[in-house]
Amino acid sequence: MDIESRIEELLSRMTLQEKIGQLNQVKAPLKADEAVFEQIRQGKIGSFIMATTAHAGNDDTAITENLLINKMQKIAVEESRLGIPIIYGRDVIHGHRTVYPVPLASAASFNPELVEKCYRNIAREATADGVNWTFSPMLDLSRDPRWGRIIEGPGEDPYVGATMAEACVKGFQGDDISNKDSLVACAKHYIGYGASEGGRDYHRTEISDYNLYNYYLPAFRAAVNAGVGTVMSSFNDISGQPVTSGKKYLTDILRGKLGFEGFVVSDWDAVCQLKKQGVAENDADCAELAINAGLDMNMTDKVYINNLEQLVIEGKVSEETINTAVRRVLKIKLQKGLFEKPYCDAPEIDRTEHLKDARAIAEESMVLLKNDGVLPLSKNSKVALVGPFARERRALLGSWTLDGKAEETPNFAEAMKAVIGNNMLLSDDNIAVLDNSIARAVKADVVVLALGESEKVTGEAYSVSDISLPKNQVELIHRYKALGKKVVGVFFCGRPMAMEGVAEYLDAILYAWHAGSETANAACNILFGDVVPSGKTAVTFPKRTGHIPMYYNVTSSGRKVDCYYGENPQNCYVDSYPTPAFPFGFGLSYTEFEYGEIVSRTNEITLSDLKNGKSFNFTVSVKNTGDYDGKETVQLYIRDKIASVMRPLRELKAFEKRLINKGDTETFSFQLGYDKLGFYTENGDYTVEKGEFEIYIGENCLTTNKTTVEII
Fold first, then answer.
1. Which residues are catalytic?
2. Does 116 score more than 50 pLDDT?
């Protein structure tokens, strides 16, 4: 019997209460609970979320043990009337026991193949602990680093977001979602959550339909095209309409425009929050609005299980609406193979290769922001290691690390000691005894400052109003710079930090991020030249907090004040120049790359030929003129010069990362067809217009290497 037939056969035997039970997700108990067991027997629980609070990302949230997982599953399969298995979900965001870089850092790797490989590893570890379903990837485009959750997404660019969405979904779900070591992925938070005003978590958003389709939806479209099984709706409203109750967003766009066929789950308690948002008077209203909008499964607040049956009796919700939601949930459970393989076998996982991959992606994610000839360091040099993150472990894992272990995570001092032994002079990071630290640093050839931010100021409900480096850390920089030594700043952060008053006092800056289990080892490999840095910023680094929002794909201004691109920045603010400290796509290497001119086969194509499959083809040669073999990410941007609506000054449309050996020249080829030269109108229709396009191919979004083509 095929899946559709099995669904209909099950549905024909289900009572209304059992149907509603499939739409009910509750918190998984950490110990045996007879009341929960009885609910399972009665078919009142369709899913467990393996978390105890809404803020599991920065809580000590234990995982339900395998024995209890299997016990509850056995009750569902063998003791409930219909034997429908439970699906177990957990926030496996960027790692399980092995932790990989926070997603914003992984995006900086510009290596989707490696990202996919790492997320395949994550799935293997999580499924071994009984997890079937992960609430990841988070695909919220964000332009505000004050927002704590910017670290969980791919940054400010729709194309990078789409690329990472595809990589994560394929990594989690594998070639066959029914395999034991595959996780059902969940694209979240749909949609617009990253636009929360002021970077304040859970606050309102104001997004036009034009911006929604062109900026916020591409990553979700890519996830749907990659076969993502589920989608999580977002807390926020868009222009006064909560997404939780927004039929326009959950049905018309997600299913109608994007073609999504899986099920939608709410975020934690989001359905009952419709009361607080002022569109529902009571829980029954909340349930009615959400289910009729197309929200299939209700997370934790029990609004569906307590109200849907009566709403059907009253005719406010049709039973066919319930049936449609149940079909979607059952389809995912069947596709996952839970009916045939409901239990967790808890296989032993050899994490050796996982840790190697964790180090590799950490190395490729780290961004060399500045280097005045200091790096790489000689292993024979005496290095004074100073700063509050020299011995830190937990923060290196980042927020939303539920199952990684800080005690298994090497700290920076340990990693450096392993590389240079007694040439490391570990100084006290307590400013109260700074004199002792300075005395040690005087004997050193170079000072390395381990700087950063805690995981407790990133993640859900952990936003900040100021992204500046803490004052005590700025003081460290100034004090050690005054010694006349070369000073290297290594930043262990989740978000971009404001760099004014910081970058100019450092001779080199390595942005190491919260890069997971192998953060410290990866940073040391780069510092001492065992690895040549290749990361590129996936989000703009502003000079000051007051310059937010700052993003590269901005539209042109009517006057000459496009400050991102250096156009009269003094006219934007009278007290500062709001050009980026480090632009999108920026990252240095230990070697040098020389770009040739862009070569195009043709500079003109008719619109009809473009629609019929023709494309512009570009090549550019890149020569490694330095002393090291190194990887370079070659980036292609376009600008639609004249259009019916304002278009961005530059849009990333392609990139390729490749190793170029010293002295060698590599040729990079790119195609731009109909699918990459247009935009979405405010009603969601895709269009390509005639006219001139500037094509930029270079090292970051500010490259001046360009040519012009025309659609005629």
1. 267
2. yes
